[in-house]
Structure formats: C-alpha cells, structure tokens
Amino acid sequence: MKISxxxxxxxxxxxxxxxxxxxxxxxxxLKKAGGKPKDCGLDDFSAAGPGxxxxxxxxxxxxxxxxxxxxxxxxxxxxHTSEKLxxxxxxxxxxxLYYAKYLKEYFNVIAVAISxxxxxxxxxxxxxxxxxxxxxxxxxxxxxxxxxxxxxxKLVRGEKVQKAYNLSEVKATAVSIHDSLRINKMTEKLKxxxxxxxxxxxxxxxxxxxxxxxxxxxxxxxxxxxAIERVLSDGExxxxxxxxxxxxxxxIGSVIKLRATPLSDDNSLRWYINQLEMKxxxxxxxxxxxxxxxxxFYHEFISYSSGDGNSLGIVLTPQHLTEFMADLINIDxxxxxxxxxxxxxxxxxxxxxxxxxxxxxxxxxEYIRKNNLYGIEQDSDIHTLALANMIMRKDxxxxxxxxxxxxxxxxxxxxxxKDTNGNPVVLNKGLLNxxxxxxxxxxxxxxxxxxxxxxxxxxxxxxxxMSCAIGTKFKxxxxxxxxxxxxxxxxxxxxxxxxxxxxxxCVCVMVWEAxxxxxxxxxxxxxxxxxxxxxxxxxxxxxxAYDKWETIKSExxxxxxxxxxxxxxxxxxxxxxxxxxLCEAYMKTDYTKLTQEDFxxxxxxxxxxxxxxxNVYEE
Length: 619
Hints:
single chain; 7-stranded mixed β-sheet; elongated
C-alpha cells in the first residue's frame, strides 16, 4: 500500500489524518468515535474522548462503495498491540479496531495497524469487520505485510491477489527468505526446490484456503504434498516426475529446526508459505506481466546461496532483451513458441505476456495458455522451477518437457504433440539462449536443433556469443545452417548486458528464417546496438534509470523493419558462412560523433591487446 500517495488513486481516494471526507457517513462515524480514549474495551461505546476521531488514513474504494479501509500507525513496534486491545490511544491495533467499531455502523471495514519506523522491522495486522456485525475477523495471511488497498479487498473476498512487478520487493523477499532458510539450516540444493514446491501447492484452491488454519507441522507437510500432486496431475505431468518432485519436497521434513518452529512463528513452514503467497505469487498472477518474476526471484535467491548466482545453472536472459527478441520475430496471439533450453521459462513468460495483450477474450487467453507455449529443459531441478513458473500462470497442461534437446526420443515427443483440438502442433516461432561453452555441443548446434522444430517460414531469435558470428569459427555448423535456413539479421548487443550474472561474454542476437536456404545474393541486416540506455546501479545491476529503453527499442525495431542504413549504427551486406556476421565488419563510421575519449580508448584497447599477445616489451 503506497499510503504516501494520498488523494485520488486508481483504486479510490486516500484521506490523510484530519482531512474531512465528502462522505457524511464517514464523518458521522468519526464524530461519534471522538478522540481516542486511553482506556476503552472494544465493546464499550461510552468512553469516546472530546473532538473528532483522526485516524492516520481513511481509504475509500472505487469498486466497492460499501467497504472502507482505516489505517492506524505507531512509530515503535512496542506500541503495536496491547494484551486486551483496550488502549486505543497508545497502540496501533487497539486504535485501528477502535475506529472500525464505529465505522462498521455504515460500512464493511478493513482495519490495518502498522507499527515501526524501519520497513524491515515493521509489524502489520489487518482485520475485517463486516457492517453491523458483532465480531471481526483477523486477516492472518497479510500479517506483517502491507498490501495495496484493492488487494486487501481481494483477500477478504477470497479472490486471487495480484500486483505489478516490483524489483526491490522481489529482492527484499529473496533476501529475507534466504536468510531465514539459512538460519533453519536448509541445504543449498533443497532451498529453491522447496520454494518451487510451495508455489505449486499454492495453485491448489483447497490448500490455499486452508493452510493457515493448520496447526501441525506433519499435517501441513502432508497437505502440501497432496496439493502438489493434485496440481501436477491436473497439468498432465508424468507420474515419475510427480514422484520426484514430491520426494524432494518431502526432504524438508528432515530439516530439524524448521520442524521444531511453531507454525504460528516467523520462519515456520506456514510463514514461508504465507510470504510467497502474499509477496511473490501476486506478481506471477498479474495477467499483464511479461516479466519472469519467479525467475528473477530465484536468481536473487540463489545468488545469496552460493555467491556466484549460478549454483543451479540459472543465467537469466535480461528482461528487456527477452522482450526485444520477442518483438524482433513478431510474436502475437497466434504464435506457437518454443525454447529448447528454457531454463526457468523467461522467454516463454515474455511470449505469453505479449500474446495476452493481444487477446480480446478470456477464451483466447485460455487457448494461448494451453496451446501456444512449449519448452525443453535438461536439468531436473531447473525443470521443476520451469514447471512451477508455467503452472502458476495456469498454462493448462504443461508443455515443458524434461529431457535433452538432442535426444531423439525427446524430439519425437515434441513432433507428436497435439493441441486441445487434436491437431498437430505447428511451431512457428523460437526464442533461445543456449548454454555457452559446452563440451559436446557448440551454441550454434542448439540453434540448428531449434530451427529443425520450426515450420517453414517461421523465425527464431537467438542470443549467443559474438564468437559464433566470426567467420573463422564453427565453419561446419555455420555452413549447415545456411544450407537449410536464412540469416535475416544480426545485432551486436551491449558488452555488459549480462552484468551481475557471472556471464561476462559479449553477445549478439541473430534472427533466422526456418527451412529456407540462405541466398547470399540477398543482403542480411546488421545492427550495432551497443547502447540500450541502461546504467549500472549498486545492488541493482543494470537498470533503465532514465527511462530510455522503450524509445531506443522502438528505434532499433524500426531500423530493422525498414532496413534503414545509418552510419555508425546499422549496415546491410551479402554474406556466406565464411564471412563475419557482425555489424562492425560492414558499417561506416560516423565521424561526427567521435571524441578525443573514443580515440584514446581505441589506443588503450589496442595496447592492451598487444600486451596480451606478448608483442610489447619494456626496454
């Protein structure tokens, strides 16, 4: 809840302390409440102090005129709640409920009590007091979590809580949960699989509604396992995979400290479930979100586990790069998209989001979920994360296969896939970030394999090391690619685009048209797209701090679609498998933009190269 944004908001109106509302019923209730007395039980309506009541905030809601939110705050957590809730002047909970008992004469009231000066240490309790009812209900799922106003309303109604992506909140939640699991001495390998299991279990409606009422660790663990099985079975996951996931999740039962923590306490099994349900799941449930919130959460989470961020082999493709690549190949609601090295599912999540934005009906959205997204992941643990990611987005039966993308049986399964109408699946778009520096297969062989799955005329966008685009390397696979497929474009990307992920490789993005032999007499488009407007920020990595990216992306796409040549930025050239596939080899320099610093940097780079090669000696 961004309670600092007082006044008119999308959800309604926030009135700050002492502000008069235009609603006579609110004003009348606050007049009856008067100034908060020092001592007053909840059933006592006779102890109102002089003057008019002044809660910190009153919030009215556009979509429910019969419900309001009242917020009471205290600077110190020592002033959060009294034992008998009978000191409204001195304690946040007591005060919030004091106001609510008067407001409930006219409204359904959501009372929120917040105490503490630092965000990391605040205490939060929320309550729902229905109009004219004697008793209130505690909203236990939002304990110590501040929700947006409309999400409090959804919580009361039992609806799915949704929220827009928030990087700082993802990072804060990842740190909090990781530190807690470390204290509980959960193994590094088990941590992310535990998270995936909880998120899968939360997709089960019965479990989501009832877990917070369970008081036994064993019963909650068994209930989680049953929910996982129900969700995965509905997703048509193989029985062996279900057994594997359940077996790994069941290992949390042997985490002694976790088992010993009372479910009512922080750092308990129920606490973890609640944190994920209220903080991460809402971002994944947000329909308009093209961001892989779960993948980013895992990356942040795992980076605190091992220090290198890659203990499970997860290297996230930057979000803005996945969107750029999806736009390059014009993914729309009719696209059938595949990623044969899907990792946690970042490309598929981006593709899904773009399709949803074009969908006009809920029926179209459901069809997209069930028929338009396909992936392969070899690593068993990462496959589990991808399953959790897609299942949480209700993709119907999951089309994320566990297997080797070079294995004939895995490919056979893919080629035999049918859609919900019983028709063969025709894949026409591919997105790919293959694993780098593998011993058995070079990056372009993963591209070659994905192109084989794409129908004639379909397109694949792949991000790969720039070494793949140099004519002296990988000649055989480059020749094979051009014998069957067309290289439409190559874009040199910013050198530090993977900054902060332990992947320092300079990369390019290629666009290929499937099953159409490359014609070396037709020019390929090249882009020198080194400046995406992102800057480095401590603890955040590369960020679009100055909101330049959307403008830059639009220009990059326009130049490609119109095949416009701009000195220093784009070029066109006819190439074969023997040539270099990088803009740097063909573009003309724009000398008007050169500076003394550019000249000095070039000299420095050349000198560094000579020293590295051993061609510079001191006398």
